[in-house]
Amino acid sequence: MSSPRLQQLISAIGQVLLGKEQAVRLALACLLARGHLLIEDLPGMGKTTLAEALARAFGLEFKRVSFTSDLLPADLTGINVFDAGSARFHFQPGPLFSQVLLADEINRASPRTQSALLEAMAAGRVSVDGVSHPLPEPFLVIATQNGLDQVGTAPLPESQLDRFLMRLSLGYPDRRAELDLLSGKALPPASLEPLLDGAGLLELQRRAAAQHCSSALLDYVLDLAAFSRRADQAGTGLSPRACQGLVAAARAWSLLEGRDHVTPADVQAVLPAVAEHRLAGSAATLLAGVDGLR
Amino acid sequence: MSGSARWLQILGLGALAAGLAGLDFSAPLSWLSAGLLVLAGLKLAEARSLPERRLVSLLTLIGGGVQGAQQGELLPSLLQLLATALGLAGLLALEVGSGLSWRAVLRRSLAVLLAALPVALVLFLLVPRIEPIWQTPNLRGAGATAVTGLNSELDPGSISSLADNTGPAARVSFSSGTLPEPAERYWRVIVHEQFDGQRWKQRELPSNRLVTSTGTASDPESKASSQVWLVEPSPVNAMPWDGSGRANPNQLRVNRNGELQPLQASRERQAYLVRATGSPQPWQQRQPSPADLELPAGSNPQLEALGASWRDLATPEQRLAAAKQWFTQQDFRYSRTPGTQRGLDVFLFERREGFCGHYASAFTALMRAAGVPARVVSGYLGGTWVRPLSGAPYLDLRHSNAHAWSEVWLPGQGWQRIDPSAWATAPASQAEGSEAGGSTNPIGSWLQWLQWQWWGLDLAWSRWWLGFDQAGQEALLQRLFGDQRQWLGAVVLGAVAGLLALALAWLQWLQQPASRDQISRELQAVVKHLRRAGVEVEPGESFEQLCNRASRLLPASASNLQELARCHNLLRYAALGKQERLQQWAAWRTALRTINKATKSTL
């Protein structure tokens, strides 16, 4: 199967978030594919726990911001502060300048603040007062949000959603896992020892991007995209960025599976997480609509 | 617009330029070819936009066509084919952009050519040839350095030794595919009529004295035997033949002495077809002229005296017999190195040693002295019988096969061939002349072998296209249409339209399997078997999922189904080396066979 280090990561996070191995693997694949991750579920399902566990296990420097309705963009990006000693302004970086930004309850912030994240997520840099400041490498956003029917939330605009490679739902744990949780077998996220560092993650990301992707597989992805864009399908189709993300995620998934090449199974495994927040329909409709016998 | 298009066009022009090297620039069409090439080259250099680049390819194609109208021989034809394929490939590369590799483009252009082949064949067979366009081809020249063992002037006395020039002189293949009898392997080229006491000269016959070889045109219906000749460049204005038959009158005519002469003197390689005719040849029956008895008095007194002594014999046949008897009684030896001998008397009465030229000229002079019209003929004798791997067997004539003999006029029989060299002792290899190129050098013999193979192909090709000349086409049209010739145009148009439609359909069909690769064809076989076993494919299911599901339903085949899924994934999605790919294919086949057996037994 996959490399021992990846196995260690999965099992370490699994000790914190019980009974959610599939979600943990997808989250790993998302980060290995250099994608930003959105975890969406009801309160109390372990969203923040997963986010924090990921950040800690990767050994990355992370900052956590709880988004509220009065959070301003400058609270994220930082501001130019007047230094009386040198009689100059100098830039005071905000919490965005870290390797991992844990954006808790992202949909509670105002749209203005949400869009401040746009440039950071897409381009890896932040512009303050006309000066562009590069963000560190790697830079990942792990955001959590509540279901939209919760009180006091503003839905993320589609442009913002499209910048998240994956959206995960955790769902209720099974009975056995919940029993373990109640018995106190789950470790707190703070207890996780870092298993990787920034350089290690970059190396894994490089390996994921180098996974062999045959033209037959790309054909499959293109067929899926073409089907999603058909007139008889609800909503908009998959964007080219979504297709890029799908391939990148499938590559990372195949790395987790311990293979050196991508197969349709990898695409099918990551498709719900990659596609559903961009589509009106479900990934299952998409998969059933395309001849998958390949 | 890919860079490969440019390279393909450059290569196409290169092939065209190579074809240009063989053209005869006395023909106006050659200048057109050269002009097209220059034009295409300049256009290529300055072309920036797509239409301009298209023009380069179109010029290449037209250039190939113009060359094709001039040269039909094998090598030029191959070069034209190459230029056309490359030109087409360049055009394709321009149109489809960088989407295809140059190899794929080349393959597709060959497919286009293949599809056009039936149309070309119909046009070749059925469209009547118009004289000025369908010129009798003057083939490519191998340069002006013509070497030959033959000369229009024969002066054996001045030659001290014969050089062994084993350079190629000519090739001939026979429609029967069999070698003629040794006695029939005399290939006449030049008739030497004029004798000045020492030298024999070919008489320059004025061009109006050329006679077309009579009206006994070979019956096109009959499968008359024919010979295809390929003759290397030679300064001699006559071509070898066996003295009977008929060549294309637009290319070669037989003059009154029985020499096969080209209409236009050319220092190029010649290809021609001689069809056998049953009738006696007019040149053979032509009455001798006074020139055939000319003998400068006093130049060889002993010879004249000997010849005159036979004048008393009643018939030419008897004089001939007397001469033969005289030659065989004396101690004549055949030698390729006889040393210079001034005058025939020296040869006949002192040295008695010489090669074919000595014998032929001495015997002819003796006959003239005896009052029998006679002349010297030079040409080739024998040759090497080559059986190439491909193509028909043929006779390879070298310059060392050059020979000289005599012809005497016998009343009632016409001109008869007499070879006095045969009367000398030790006729040596020259008389048989069967083994040429006995090279001990292994590389030399290899080259020799390769050359023989190439010539075999060359001759087969020449036989094919030379054989279908105007007469052949006329015969075919007559057979197909009879007197209903007015339908010819409609039939040609219909055939071309139909074949073009077929070709387009075929090309369309060719393009399809791009997505249908081998493995997906094989998948269908597996799906069929599973369906028979009751497992249907669900929508959107991948092959791996199908196999997993099927292996739960058919536990007996589970391991093989898993194996199939594994091989399929590797073959289709992994980057495998050639060796690994073969291994996976083998594993796939094994698993598939086992499953087939299993499903058959369960049914």
UniProtKB/TrEMBL annotation, chain A:
One of its GO terms (molecular function) is ATP hydrolysis activity. It comes from Cyanobium usitatum str. Tous. Transmembrane segments: none annotated. Residues 33-183 form the AAA+ ATPase domain. This is AAA family ATPase. The lineage of its organism: Bacteria, Bacillati, Cyanobacteriota, Cyanophyceae, Synechococcales. It holds the Pfam family AAA_lid_2. Gene3D superfamilies: Magnesium chelatase subunit I, C-Terminal domain, P-loop containing nucleotide triphosphate hydrolases.
TrEMBL record, chain B:
Residues 348-422 form the Transglutaminase-like domain. Pfam families: DUF4129, TgpA_N, Transglut_core. The chain crosses the membrane at residues 78-97, 109-127, 487-507. Gene3D superfamilies: 3.10.620.30. It comes from the Bacteria. Keywords: Membrane, Transmembrane, Transmembrane helix. Residues 206-228, 235-254 are annotated as: Disordered. Residues 209-228 have a biased composition (Polar residues). InterPro entries: Bact_TGase-like (IPR052901), Papain-like_cys_pep_sf (IPR038765), TgpA-like_C (IPR025403), TgpA_N (IPR021878), Transglutaminase-like (IPR002931). This is Transglutaminase-like domain-containing protein. It comes from Cyanobium usitatum str. Tous. The lineage of its organism: Bacteria, Bacillati, Cyanobacteriota, Cyanophyceae, Synechococcales.
